[in-house]
TrEMBL record:
Organism: Ramlibacter aurantiacus
Record-stated family: Belongs to the UPF0065 (bug) family.
Organism placement in taxonomy: Bacteria, Pseudomonadati, Pseudomonadota, Betaproteobacteria, Burkholderiales
Signal peptide annotation: 1-28
Keywords: Signal
InterPro entries in the record: BUG, Bug_dom1
Name of the featured protein: Tripartite tricarboxylate transporter substrate binding protein
Source organism, top-level taxon: Bacteria
Gene3D superfamilies recorded: Bordetella uptake gene, domain 1, Periplasmic binding protein-like II
């Protein structure tokens, strides 16, 4: 065999080997999904994020024709679930529904995270968001934001502001509100939703920022009253509650967003499939109705939009954390 024939033979062998190695990947993408998909969420069953994840997950399962197993990996403001998925195989069968707590706030607030969301996770689509509501005990004399600020200033730091954990939107939202309105407050962290509600009802704390779904349920029960919402417009669940903009604090416009993430390295065709079908799932009329009734605003973004939004939020909350001086570890 002359050297040209030998070279051609070697080239052909190389091409054959490359094609052979690519076949499993192509077949895997083409048949995706062919087994149950795990969808992790960092909050307990019955909470707003869990309701969103289960509702979206079921609609997604119906579209892709495979079961979706919701895994509640609770703790540390969503960090446990986020860390677990970040270290999972990048095959499209390990997905995460996360909010700004573990993605945008935690990297700036905690120096010993077990994961790096910017490097280990890929935003797929923003599926929904919910706004936050300033709530106080029903017995409090304040009936609006102005009266709350007046009472809080008079207390000169003695007002206790409850949160659902360090590094959560309610935590740094409380910090932002205090800076905007010019009052001092003591931040008190709780581990469980029920503990915050009990503390508010018993007067141990005087305020909290709650998600719209949770706040609406407590207000309806008569235990708490709402003073304002961070939404751009009034919530259909609480049409009587003004926005912070209406109350004179237009910069209090932060929301809790929820994005589906996949581990970095997940094949792009699979990411595209997840994005497309998840958007179809949450925007389906029946699913949208359920989520809106639960207090969520349905989004369903492109991957590019999700990437841009997360990057912007990372910068925003990093500044807030830095200005607060908070160090989680």
């Amino acid at each position: 065999m002359n050297r040209f024939a030998s070279r051609r033979a070697a080239l052909a062998a190389g091409i054959t080997l490359a094609l052979a190695s690519a076949v499993p990947s192509v077949l895997a993408q083409g048949s995706y999904p062919d087994k149950p998909i795990k969808l992790a969420v960092g909050f307990a069953p019955g909470t707003g994020p869990d309701i969103l994840t289960r509702t979206a997950g079921q609609a997604f399962a119906d579209i892709v024709g495979q079961s979706v197993v919701v895994e509640n990996r609770t703790g540390a403001g969503g960090q446990i679930a986020t860390g677990a998925v970040a270290k999972s195989p990048a095959d499209g069968y390990n997905l995460l529904v996360a909010d700004l707590s573990s993605i945008s706030i935690a990297p700036a607030a905690f120096s010993k995270l077990t994961y790096d969301p910017a490097k280990e996770l890929v935003p797929v689509t923003e599926i929904a968001r919910t706004d936050l509501v300033l709530v106080v005990p029903a017995s409090m004399a304040a009936n609006n934001v102005q009266e709350f600020v007046k009472l809080t200033k008079a207390a000169n730091g003695a007002t206790n502001f409850a949160t659902f954990g360090a590094g959560t939107p309610g935590h740094f939202g409380a910090v932002m509100l205090a800076e905007m309105a010019g009052y001092k407050t003591e931040i008190v962290h709780f581990r469980q939703t029920s503990d915050v509600i009990t503390a508010l009802g018993g007067g141990q704390v005087q305020a909290a920022l709650m998600s719209t779904p949770l706040a609406a349920a407590q207000i309806k029960g008569g235990r708490l009253k709402a003073l304002a919402t961070t939404a751009a417009k009034r919530s259909p669940l609480m049409p009587e509650v003004p926005t912070f903009a209406e109350a004179g604090l237009p910069k209090a416009d932060f929301s809790a967003w929820f994005v589906v993430f996949a581990p970095t390295g997940t094949p792009q065709p699979i990411v595209d499939r997840i994005q497309r079908d998840m958007v179809r799932a949450v925007q389906a009329p029946e699913t949208r109705k359920k989520l809106e009734e639960a207090g969520f605003t349905v989004v369903g973004s492109t991957q590019a939009e999700a990437r841009k939004m997360v990057a912007s939020e990372n910068e925003r909350w990093a500044r807030v954390v830095k200005s607060s001086g908070f160090k989680g570890d």
